[in-house]
Specification:
The complex is a heterodimer. Helix content of chain A is 26%, strand content 31%. By secondary structure, chain A is an alpha/beta fold. In chain A, strand 5 and strand 6 form a beta hairpin. By secondary structure, chain B is α/β, with parallel strands linked by helices. In chain B, strands 1-4-5-6-7-10-11-12 form an 8-stranded parallel beta barrel, surrounded by 5 helices. In chain B, strand 11, helix 8 and strand 12 form a beta-alpha-beta unit. The chains are: A alpha/beta, B alpha/beta. Chains A and B meet through helix 1, strand 8, strand 10 and helix 6 of A and helix 5 of B.
């Protein structure tokens, strides 16, 4: 069973529908019990990092998520769901995320995006870490573009970075730590490339 | 990389095409069209609800005699199966309207008249969902050579300083502007390109062009103007490989398009 974490808003529906196109084992749940009995979890997220962590907190999901990830449950964090694996730093404001990866989310202009339009909205590609395993689901995205829609990102030098995207400067668009994979793009909005990625991730879950 | 964005106009339950921004001809069923676009090589979809009544009932044969209660049903159906980003606009006047659209699966909401009548609501939506979820539509008409911002489906002039209006949009939390030359609607004469630089100079957000594009050459001109995305309504409906034609024309003229 693969739980698509329903934190109550945003893109949960789209992610769930996309998952259903590639697997019949996806469920949409917010209960901790469901998380505990899952084989894998997808954490979708849009909007602001602090608000997302608030929603997870109100549902009592922060510690359970940290626990199942630490126990090795495959976890796919999407957009703010990826950022939440790290922490949020915005000038004088810092919000803790799940602490799964070491990384601080910052605004694109502060990362060096000076003359391009912000937010970064549109299709773009990933450069993958050379030592990424051959069976990493990210590899199906070689020479293909996926959809980004964000104003904040992890810096390129983030430890645990396994993928980078060039938008005037390079930022980190994919992180991996243990069984947790975080992606900045939206596979549920990336037509066939996105479905192929989700399919590859689901197959990688089966083999773990 | 330019984004190619079909615009679907929804009026009282049917897809329509516009001629002269006010006259509409029914061309199809929104349910069937969305499935079609899932397999097209386009980059985003915009649905604009230009209905003049909130509810409509239908019993057309090609929908299997489905009865549509209101646009929200269409919204939910469209969003359920949409594999590209979906922006929903038209008749959104409050945080509640936008929140409902997003809950039904829209990735972005488009506010146009609301920038005049409910600016605070736009701010709330941006604060809650992020500015990347908020697009502000700026409809403009040339009056004595002055680009004049119009609201209420192009019937009420609200501002003659379009730069100031664009700043107002961005200050309200817009993460994107849909710049719509309503004089060009349905004319097939190509984009109006003189106003884009004015709006670009006062904001950092991506700008989407709309109004008058009918051919791949028009979209190429739009791409070359520096817009982030080129949107068009009517051109997609009357032949079957417009997406390939557009992509090929852009690519062969040196414009990068999405790699599939």
């Amino acid at each position: 069973m693969i739980t698509v974490l329903d934190y109550g808003s945003g893109n949960v529906e789209s992610v769930f529908n996309a998952m259903r196109r590639v697997t019949d084992r996806a469920v949409r749940e917010s209960a901790v019990e469901s998380l505990d009995s899952s084989n894998a979890v997808v954490v979708p997220g849009v909007g602001a990092f602090p608000a997302f962590m608030d929603a997870l907190g109100r549902l009592g999901l922060v510690e359970p998520l940290q626990r199942v990830i630490a126990d090795g449950m495959p976890c796919l964090g999407i957009c703010v769901g990826m950022q939440a694996l790290g922490e949020w730093g915005l000038e004088h404001e810092r919000t803790s995320g799940l602490g799964v990866v070491t990384g601080t989310v910052a605004s694109l202009p502060s990362l060096g995006v000076a003359s391009s339009r912000v937010p970064h909205v549109g299709w773009n590609g990933l450069r993958l870490a050379p030592d990424l395993p051959a069976d990493s689901p990210l590899r199906v995205l070689t020479d293909r573009d996926v959809y980004f829609m964000h104003s904040f990102a992890f810096a390129a030098e983030t430890p645990s970075a396994v993928g980078w995207t060039d938008y005037e400067v390079e930022f980190c668009s994919a992180v991996q730590s243990g069984s947790a994979l975080g992606i900045q793009f939206h596979p549920e909005k990336s037509q066939q490339a996105g479905l192929d990625f989700l399919d590859a991730w689901v197959r990688s879950v089966r083999s773990l | 990389m330019i984004r190619i964005v079909p615009v679907l106009l929804l009026k009282n339950g049917s897809l329509v095409r516009s001629t002269d921004f006010g006259l509409h001809r029914v061309i199809g069923d929104p349910f069937l069209q969305c499935a079609r676009f899932n397999s097209w090589l386009i980059d985003e979809l915009i649905y604009l609800d230009i209905s003049d009544r909130a509810a409509s009932s239908r019993g057309r044969i090609d929908t299997g005699n489905r009865r549509v209660i209101d646009a929200s049903e269409i919204q939910r159906f469209v969003a359920e199966d949409c594999l590209v980003p979906l922006a929903w606009g038209g008749r959104l006047r409050s945080y509640a309207d936008a929140s409902a659209a997003i809950d039904r699966g829209a990735d972005k909401v488009i506010f146009t008249t609301a920038l005049a009548t409910a600016q605070g609501e736009i701010e709330r939506v941006a604060a809650r969902f992020g500015e990347q979820a908020v697009c502000v539509g700026i409809d403009y008409s040339m009056r004595d050579g002055v680009p004049t911002v119009m609201i209420e489906d192009g019937t009420v002039a609200v501002e003659t300083n379009i730069a100031a209006w664009a700043r107002r949009a961005v200050d309200s939390g817009a993460g994107e502007i849909l710049l719509h030359a309503i004089d060009r609607d349905g004319t097939g004469t190509g984009y109006e390109l003189t106003v884009l630089p004015i709006v670009q100079s006062v904001s950092r957000v991506p700008i989407v062009l709309l109004g008058g594009a009918r051919t791949p050459e028009h979209l190429l001109a739009g791409a070359g103007s520096g817009a982030a995305a080129v949107a068009a309504a009517n051109m997609w409906h009357f032949s079957d490989n417009v997406d390939s034609q557009v992509r090929n024309h852009l690519t062969s003229n040196g414009v990068a398009v999405r790699r599939v």
